[in-house]
Design a protein that fits this description.
Elements lengths: L13 E8 L3 E2 L9 H14 L10 E5 L10 H8 L8 E4 L5 H14 L5 E9 L5 E2 L2 H12 L3 H8 L10 E2 H5 L1 E2 L4 E2 H11 L4 H20 L9 E2 L5 E2 L11 H4 L22 E10 L1 H7 L5 E10 L8 H13 L8 E4 L4 H11 L2 H6 L21 H4 L6 H16 L3 E8 L3 E8 L9
Parallel strand pairs: 3-4, 3-5, 14-15
Antiparallel strand pairs: 1-12, 1-13, 2-12, 5-12, 6-7, 8-9, 10-11, 13-16, 15-16
Length: 442
């Protein structure tokens, strides 16, 4: 754990003043109604419209995105221009797989902490349903030769080389959810964690049912105020996370077959995160900007950490990112009022909880003499998580930060920890505090 860092030590305080997200829309087997840039613009328009400063006052825009469309290269710049930020506001895109949205926030916070910026729009966006379907390399080579052919005879010769294998399409979404270094899908890594920590199929399904129950209750009680509705050109309104299954039950989930290990597996589509489209954007500010524009403060970013773990056990990344934050800040688990750990898989979150309280894991993997106190499940993902609402990979890190701040505000509590696992064997975590007045902090 010696390679972790304290991003904001010695720097200026960093505040989150506001945020919006779109509904997370479940992929249905065809491209959804919005591209990744459309989603980010949908979340950002209302967010910027209610601010006392013009979009041109932003110092930069930073967005996380994994699979932008071919006409969305450096999607952050495209979104910034569409939001009216003007040509003078620089914008850049980050890519850290599932941690991209949180990485964007961390990058923005670092610039503010060290005086390079005062107002930054940051977050993430992803339209997983629009993931490109590609041709295999040999087909691309044939097409290239076809374009360069100078006669009908050459083209006829090329047509004679066409084989059925030239039409084997590459689905980039499926390819992207497989780790090439260990040749395992993300679901298979969850199966490994289930075996390591003796997590049963029943425990996974119970967790999944509870995630849906909590999200349904949050919707019914109006606890998702951060959602900004989306509208299509034909007037269709999308105003809620549509992946929630209100009829989810143990009886239904037990009928599902394993998705990644057909013979011995326990991870199913029902206890895994849903493939979905969505965006989440936040506004970060320095204390100077808060005072200049008299901005309300939603919370303060206290610390952030990134960690690497074995790719085949990538789901344990949150443990390795959260631990150094608590150690640096001199905190215990009991000092954290609420937790958001992204639900890539039910097994993955359950494994993180098990590792967090394990004396053996603390000693051999974290280098600690004692484990941390258990994370109270009643303080974890209190309004449901990605199993119920979806996991648009580029935006989930921003969503959990935004929603955790809303939970702290709603409950009047002080501290929250947001964390997520990252494909490829990483983890990210961010410690947040509710802060009412930036001017009082200096």
């Amino acid at each position: 754990m010696n390679n972790t860092r304290h991003a904001y030590a010695g720097g200026r305080p960093v505040y989150i003043i506001d945020g919006n997200r779109t509904p997370f829309l479940k992929a249905s087997g065809k491209p959804g109604p919005f591209r990744a840039s459309d989603l980010a613009v949908g979340a950002g328009k209302a967010l910027l419209a209610r601010q006392p400063f013009a979009p041109e006052a932003l110092d930069e825009v930073i967005l996380g995105c994994i699979i932008p469309g071919p006409d969305e290269i450096n999607i952050a710049r495209l979104v910034a221009l569409r939001l009216g930020c003007g040509k003078q506001v620089p914008a850049w895109t980050v890519q850290r797989n599932c941690g991209s949205g949180m990485q964007a926030i961390d990058s923005a916070a670092t610039d503010i902490a060290f005086g390079r910026a005062d107002l930054v729009l940051a977050g993430g966006t992803e339209a997983m349903s629009h993931a490109p379907v590609l041709l295999p390399p040999r087909s691309v080579e044939l097409l290239s030769a076809w374009r360069q052919a100078r006669s009908a005879t050459e083209r006829l010769r090329l047509l004679g080389r066409v084989r059925p294998s030239h039409f084997r399409l590459v689905f980039s979404l499926l390819q992207g959810l497989t780790d090439p270094t260990v040749n395992l899908s993300m679901g298979q890594t969850a199966e490994i964690l289930a075996q390591r920590f003796a997590i049963s199929r029943e425990e996974m399904d119970v967790f999944a049912v509870e995630s849906h129950r909590r999200l349904a209750q949050a919707q019914d009680e109006g606890r998702l105020a951060e959602i900004e509705p989306l509208y299509t050109n034909d007037g269709t309104v999308y105003d809620h996370d549509d992946g929630v299954r209100r009829d989810s039950s143990m009886e239904r989930l037990t009928k599902l077959k394993p998705a990644f290990d057909r013979i011995y597996g326990m991870v199913t589509a029902g206890n895994s995160a849903q493939v979905s489209d969505g965006a989440a954007l936040l506004l970060l500010a320095s204390a100077d900007a808060v005072r200049q524009y008299r901005l309300p403060v939603l919370g303060r970013i206290v610390d952030c950490a990134w960690a690497g773990v074995a790719p085949k056990q990538m789901g344990l990344g949150p443990v390795h990112a959260m631990a150094p934050i608590l150690l640096r800040q001199g905190l215990q688990s009991t000092d954290i009022d609420y937790w958001e750990i992204n639900e890539a898989f039910a097994a993955q979150v359950l494994a993180c909880r098990a590792a967090w309280r394990s004396a053996g894991y603390a000693r051999t993997e974290l280098g600690l003499e004692q484990p941390f106190a258990a994370i109270d499940p009643e303080r974890l993902n209190v309004d449901g998580g990605a199993v119920a609402l979806g996991h648009p990979v580029g935006s989930s890190g921003a969503r959990i930060v935004l929603h955790l701040l809303q939970v702290l505000k709603r409950t009047g509590m002080r501290r929250g920890m947001a964390a997520l696992c990252i494909g490829g064997g990483q983890g990210g975590a961010m410690l947040l505090e509710q802060s009412e007045e930036a001017g009082h902090e200096q």
